[in-house]
Amino acid sequence: MKLVIEQTRMELSTLLRNYEQLLLILVIPVGILVFFGNVQVLPDSVSLSRLVSSVLTLSIMSTAMVSTGIATGFERSYHVLKRLGATPLGRERLIWAKAMSVAMVETAQIAVLLVIASIMGWSPSVVTWWKLIAAIVLGTSAFAGIGLTLAGRLRAEANLASQNGLYLALLAVGGIIVPIDELPDAMALIARILPSGALAEAMHTSLGGATSDAWFSYASGSGVWLDLLGWAIVAPIVASRLFRFDG
Amino acid sequence: MSTVFVVIMPVNNTALAVRDLVIRYGDITAVRSVSFEARHGEVTAILGRNGAGKTSTLEACEGLRKATSGSLRVLGKDIAEVDNASRTRIGVMLQDGGIAPSARVFSLVRHYCRLYDRGVEPRRLLEQVGLQHRASSTWRRLSGGERQRFSLALALAADPDIAFLDEPTAGVDLDGRDMIRDIIAELTAKGCCVVLATHDLDEAERVAQHAVVLHRGEVVLDDTVENLRSGQRRLEDVVREVTR
């Protein structure tokens, strides 16, 4: 446990020195929440409550997938992972340290976003905490799996471009900000399968919001959770099969 | 009544035993049935041209590369049994460092000292490799020679019983080479087994007691440096002859 804590400390201090990652995990989600919460440019179906759950989804995606994926991709290309594999830390504890640092960053992100949302007037009627935590855990597992699959196979630069491209694509058409049913049919069909919309919907209902047909018309509440669960199981399995420590 | 002093010598001084090591990458066989031993208190140099199989052999010994077949025993343990606890006694210096460009010198050395937990003091370690004045620099701001010494410091954080050093003097200036040579001499004086892979035959001649020459993945020479240099020949000439 001592080595996991030491490696987690190192992961977090590296993250804090990396301004691009701080922009991604904190500045962009806060910026989106504040901007779209104050400027009426989104469809009427996007209430403040919906926006909060969407931005929480975005923050999980940015930490678990993009930030972890890009950092790990570069570590792989610089042979940092290989070098750490030759220390007493070992691969298993390295993975635990990365998971712990993701959990700590997400906790801080969510706390900051919820405080800002409260200042903006967001006041959820009922919060189902176990559902909220389950959504965060499943979403983190799904997005970390996707991020590490890309990081473990692609060259660092290609990985960087792919993670950023995927982030923007999911933000725009992944059911996070724009309601799925307002997308063109073909795009909506794909968006309904993606984990981003499912996580946003799971977050929304956990925070006391009503299920909206405009967001997930194909599925009842359980369909959303099954979709998210599927991604949370399959993505890490794919990552563990495809990931190469040495790039 | 007379007192009898008994000096106990280790029965087996072997720190590394490689037997019939084969490493294949797809259809390419990089290492073909390589066997050699390296002893405590000695420097074993693995020599050869580019692509001879030096780094593959070294990485298999470090547990970073899976052998296709053959056996490897490191510090008396089969490589498959070398667990994280055993790694506290194994120092590794990779050919390409394995360090992120944004890593700060002191911060990473302290981190490795904590991971190995062998009581090595990070500031003393930086002084040993002559990087105390670069403690707050990042890897990307170091010169080629400083990067090599930084990488060596991470291997020394283990206070190793066996150290695998891949091209430790590549790109290092004369003063830096002297420093690295001294460090290697200190390691062997403490009984550490140093296994180094290098292109630099002059350097090998200066620091190594034992040389293993690889050519196209096979061992073509395995002897003491003293024997190889018999008749006042330079090690470089001997190696050139057998790797032609």
What would you say this structure looks like, in words?
The complex is a heterodimer of chains A (247) and B (244). By secondary structure, chain A is mainly α. In chain A, 77% of the residues lie in helices and 0% in strands. Chain A has helices at residues 2-16, 19-38, 48-77, 80-85, 90-119, 129-151, 156-173, 185-193, 195-206, 213-216, 221-242. The two termini of chain A are 28 Å apart. Chain B is of the alpha/beta class and 244 residues long. Chain B has one domain (40-58, 82-211, 220-242): Rossmann fold (3-Layer(aba) Sandwich), CATH 3.40.50. Chain B is 31% helix and 27% strand. Chain B is built from eight helices and ten strands. Chain B has helices at residues 54-62, 105-116, 122-128, 144-156, 174-189, 201-207, 225-228, 235-242; strands at residues 14-25, 28-39, 43-47, 69-74, 77-78, 90-93, 162-166, 193-198, 210-215, 218-224. Chain B has a six-stranded mixed beta sheet with strand order 6-7-8-3-9-10, sandwiched between helices. In chain B, strands 2-1-4-5 form a four-stranded antiparallel beta sheet, covered by helices on one side. In chain B, helix 5 (174-189) links the parallel strand 7 and strand 8 (193-198). In chain B, helix 2 (105-116) packs across helix 3 (122-128). Chain B is globular, with a radius of gyration of 18 Å. The termini of chain B are far apart. Classes of the chains: A mainly alpha (247), B alpha/beta (244).
